[in-house]
């Protein structure tokens, strides 16, 4: 395009004088007047949605085409007609016949046209035509700047109307990004965009799922006070929020619409009620429903009723849902399949299968017709009830209605049968669905897994053959399912046999195949076959990933062969066959720690860093835990320092490891300081952290602090476990506080926590030291009742008590019982028996547990 201000060939002087001073030739009746001045809060009119198509180019005034007029003289002529928009338009079209070049005269014309309501439509159409052209100069920044500068140059007030028409042109041309830019530029200028055009832009953003951008744009306009929106805006934003599953935001939009004086219509109420249902605010939902129906006299839609019915059923308020359904029907609105299915599900959940069937039969008679979801609900709940005949009946009804059950439905029904001690029904359904072609390879693979778990190897092989004959594989997933089930049931030999069969049929194993078998071999401590599978894997052309190698490393470490795992890791890193990450190193470090080889763990950590693998929180936590357990607190604190220097925050297990280390050393001040730091970091300690502190204070004889921590633990909503109660009872008994100790023990039993051997030993020890032999015997009998085998220490205490009471026969009987249970008497046992023969007795204690 030529420069907008370029001079054309100057016409004869007489023609220029006529151009500047003459009155318009054409009467205004040749151009239909139209008013298009939309109110910011008004709904769109027919003229906006269907722009006038009246010709805006004036016919040539002579039989010969006039030359282009000089731009500056056209501007002067237009300025002379600034109060006569129709005349200015005719003159501009005469001066620019058949062309659409945009210069300063064009923007001057726009300002002249928007100065009169009668010519607003002309301005809008001109801007629409220009934006729809292929000109590269239609970017908002350019056009908005032209509008502003031309207004200032020619003495016009900068008004919102032409900019809003420009915005409308962008939205009509579906240039949404340009429309957004236009709105942002208007906000910068302090010009309020017309709400109708704003809504169009927001709607376009929502349609393309740019919901956050739409909300941000609206929020920016509201924040500047330029546009508040109308009911249509509220509708749009509420729908967008509900689509995003953000009902709280939808309700906020509704509240703000009411605050700014919007009179809610049926749709606004409906959206608000739907939002209430999604936030489970049924009280508000009912309140809006009543207000809508009784106060505003608005019609409640089927969708609105259904939303509330579904929400009520989800909250197990089935009776209220039924009453609302009856109200809906009395209003002349039929129940849809969603509401009916929801009520059926509600009755089923309440074990009222009769009412569920009644609704279903009514649907069959009167409608709506049940769909696949309806049948799914009924089949699921009748399966749970064990009524397999009904399940088959529903299946046949689905078939009669032409509804094909989904593979998921078929799988669910079969699984319910198999898990519900009705495998014959499940197998029957599987055969039936297989014959009809509904059962796919997913269902077949699931059945293969179940057959393997049941040990039905022949049936498994038969199913594999059937799958092959029906063109359903079996594929690598089928064999993987079989091998996984066999490995989990510790039938490794059969899993390896299936693997060999798979190779014979040229079915290529994948990463999951090798990972499953290697893991199974290591868990069964079959190291020979584990290495055989690994060798086969390495000889294949499969691209093995880190997960498989990690499985090997993990298996070796669990088998106590962390050194071999480390050697493998070194080989992999050296050969660069696979990128080994932090997880494998963490496994090796943890393996060394569990093998009590802390120096090797430290060496593995250093090697990890040397190979460019960055330690993560798990690495540091594992290292700190190992160092603390090995009383190497200085190194553990160095790890903590290194971790913080890297900008990494300690998690609860990391704090727990350090706190436990200090507690075991009796440094409770340092442990308590870390405990406080943990809270300052916004973390919440778990049971393990509390147990470490309670144990530490118990070891120092500070039971007051231990009890305070126990109370804080309960206050923080944590559940005390067996270790907590054992530590507290032990400490209290050592202090001689028998009442409080047994109070905690009773509390523990009330929570359903069964005392183990350690707890029983603690109580027996404490009671023995206090001479409470009767209570010792009670505890001894309680252990037997709970199938907890007493240890040598407890037998010694009871035997010693019987000797002291003079029950020599019972004492020797218990000694024999001890031997029968495979317990080996220790030196204390023989000392008691020897002294018992001479009338002496001894109460045995335990220094520490």
Summarize the structure in words.
This protein is mainly alpha-helical and 849 residues long. Helices cover 69% and strands 0% of the residues. The protein has 46 helices and no strands. Helix 24 runs antiparallel to helix 25 and helix 44 runs parallel beside helix 46 (827-837).
Count of helices?
A: 46
Question: Which overall shape is indicated by the principal axes computed on the Cα atoms?
Answer: extended
Residue runs with pLDDT of under 50 for 5 or more positions: 1-69, 839-849
Secondary-structure class: mainly alpha
Mean pLDDT: 82
- Give me the count of strands: 0
Report how far the terminal alpha carbons are from each other: 93 Å
Biggest β-sheet: count, sense, barrel? none
Summarize it:
With 849 residues, this protein is mainly alpha-helical. The chain is extended, with a radius of gyration of 42 Å.
């Amino acid at each position: 395009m030529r420069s907008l201000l370029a001079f054309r060939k100057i016409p004869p002087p007489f023609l220029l004088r006529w151009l500047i001073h003459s009155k318009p030739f054409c009467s205004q009746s040749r151009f239909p007047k139209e008013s298009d001045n939309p109110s910011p809060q008004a709904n769109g009119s027919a003229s906006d949605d269907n722009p006038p198509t009246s010709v805006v180019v004036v016919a040539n005034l002579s039989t010969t085409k006039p030359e282009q007029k000089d731009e500056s003289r056209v501007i002067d002529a237009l300025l002379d007609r600034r109060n006569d928009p129709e005349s200015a338009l005719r003159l501009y079209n005469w001066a620019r016949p058949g062309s659409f070049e945009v210069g300063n005269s064009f923007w001057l014309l726009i300002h002249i046209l928007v100065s009169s309501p009668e010519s607003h439509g002309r301005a809008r159409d001109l801007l629409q035509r220009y934006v729809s052209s292929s000109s590269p100069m239609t970017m908002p920044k350019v056009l908005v700047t032209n509008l502003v500068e031309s207004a200032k140059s020619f003495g016009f007030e900068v008004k919102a109307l032409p900019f809003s028409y420009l915005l409308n042109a962008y939205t009509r041309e579906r240039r949404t990004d340009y429309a957004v830019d236009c709105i942002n530029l208007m906000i910068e200028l302090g010009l309020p965009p017309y709400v109708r055009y704003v809504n169009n832009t927001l709607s376009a953003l929502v349609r393309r799922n740019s919901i956050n951008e739409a909300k941000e744009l609206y929020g920016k306009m509201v924040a500047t006070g330029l546009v508040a929106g109308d009911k249509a805006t509220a509708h749009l934003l509420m729908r967008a929020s509900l689509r995003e599953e953000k009902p709280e935001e939808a309700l906020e939009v509704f509240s703000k619409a009411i605050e700014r004086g919007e009179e809610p219509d049926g749709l606004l109420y409906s959206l608000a009620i739907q939002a209430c249902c999604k936030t489970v605010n049924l009280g508000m939902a009912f309140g809006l429903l009543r207000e809508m129906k009784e106060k505003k006299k608005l019609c409640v839609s089927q969708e609105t009723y259904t939303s509330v019915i579904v929400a009520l059923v989800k909250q197990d308020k089935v009776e209220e849902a039924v009453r609302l359904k009856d109200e809906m029907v009395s209003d002349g609105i039929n129940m849809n399949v969603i509401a009916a299915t929801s009520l059926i599900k509600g009755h089923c959940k309440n074990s009222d299968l009769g009412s569920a069937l009644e609704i279903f039969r009514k649907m069959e008679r009167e409608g709506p017709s049940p769909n696949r979801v309806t049948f799914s609900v009924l089949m699921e709940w009748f399966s749970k009830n064990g009524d397999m005949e009904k399940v088959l009946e529903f299946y046949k009804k689905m078939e009669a209605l032409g509804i094909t059950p989904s593979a998921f439905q078929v799988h669910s029904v079969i699984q319910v049968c198999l898990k519900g001690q009705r495998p014959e029904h499940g197998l029957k359904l599987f055969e039936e669905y297989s014959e009809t072609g509904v059962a796919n390879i997913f269902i077949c693979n699931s059945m293969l897994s179940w057959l393997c778990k049941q040990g039905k190897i022949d049936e498994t092989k038969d199913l594999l053959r059937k799958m092959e004959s029906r063109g359903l594989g079996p594929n690598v997933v089928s064999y993987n399912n079989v091998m996984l089930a066999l490995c989990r049931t510790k039938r490794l030999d059969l899993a390896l046999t299936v693997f060999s069969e798979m190779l014979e049929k040229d079915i290529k194993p994948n990463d999951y195949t090798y990972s499953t078998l290697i893991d199974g071999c290591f868990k069964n401590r079959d190291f020979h076959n584990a290495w055989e599978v690994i060798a086969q894997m390495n000889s294949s052309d499969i691209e093995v990933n880190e997960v498989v190698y990690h499985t090997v490393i993990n298996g070796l470490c669990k088998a106590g062969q962390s050194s071999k795992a480390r050697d493998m890791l070194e080989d992999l890193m050296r050969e660069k066959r696979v990128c080994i990450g932090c997880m494998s190193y963490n496994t090796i470090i943890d393996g060394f720690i569990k093998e009590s080889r802390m120096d090797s763990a430290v060496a593995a950590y250093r090697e990890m860093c040397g190979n460019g693998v960055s330690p993560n929180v798990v690495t540091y936590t594992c290292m700190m835990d190992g160092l603390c357990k090995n009383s190497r607190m200085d190194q553990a604190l160095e790890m903590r320092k290194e971790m913080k220097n890297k900008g990494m925050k300690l998690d609860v297990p990391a704090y727990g490891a350090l706190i436990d280390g200090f507690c075991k050393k009796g440094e409770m001040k340092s442990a308590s300081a870390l405990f406080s730091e943990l809270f300052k970091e916004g973390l919440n300690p778990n049971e393990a952290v509390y147990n470490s502190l309670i144990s530490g204070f118990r070891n120092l004889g500070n039971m007051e602090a231990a009890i305070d921590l126990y109370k804080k633990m309960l206050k923080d909503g944590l559940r005390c476990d067996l270790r907590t109660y054992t530590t507290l009872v032990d400490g209290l008994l050592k202090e001689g506080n028998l009442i409080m100790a047994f109070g905690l023990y009773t509390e523990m039993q009330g929570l359903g926590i069964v005392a183990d051997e350690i707890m029983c030993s603690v109580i027996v020890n404490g009671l023995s030291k206090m001479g409470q032999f009767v209570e010792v015997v009670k505890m001894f009998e309680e252990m037997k009742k709970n199938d907890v085998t007493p240890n040598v220490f407890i037998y010694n205490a009871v035997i010693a008590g019987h000797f002291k009471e003079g029950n020599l026969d019972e004492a020797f009987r218990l000694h024999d019982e001890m031997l029968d249970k495979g317990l080996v008497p220790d030196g204390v046992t023989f000392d008691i028996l020897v002294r018992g023969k001479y009338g002496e007795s001894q109460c045995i204690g335990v220094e520490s547990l």
